[in-house]
Sequence to fold (163 residues):
Amino acid sequence: MEVKTYSYRARVGMILAIVVFFGLCTGVIANSAMNVDGPVRIRGLGTFSQASAPTVLWIMTALCVGFVAAGVLAALRSRDDCRLIRLDGDGIEAPRSAVSRTVIRLAWTDITDVAVKSVSGQTTMALRDLDRKLVIPKNGLNNGAAFDDLVAEVQDRVAHPAP
Fold:
């Protein structure tokens, strides 16, 4: 069987929206930490006195800064065009996720199930083998036609593995 490759990467727009959200949260929480004028109640965490509230708010600010940094790194990593889904005569090779550097390889003979599901507008193809699962989202590929071609090709190769 011929080797086929498909470009695979995350949508940078969603990552950047998350970075902007946590960036705004950082500013709001840091401002609150600098201007505490009484006890602070945070639903789910409890009530903090005027003396301990700034510490808790600065910890929350640091977490938000960490999420912003992680988002920027994810956006930079997702711009790397090296991630491909590769189909060959022996199996499929794909990144664990659109921003992951870890590549998973599944042999056609080991794949026990190919399922295409759509949940809340998110269409995915899940490949299961004996002890692993590889999920490929439709929006990780360049277009819907590429995803449909990938699904058809995988289903054909699982049903008819190369000798």
Observations:
- The longest strand covers residues 113-119.
- Helices lie at 12-34, 53-78, 144-159.
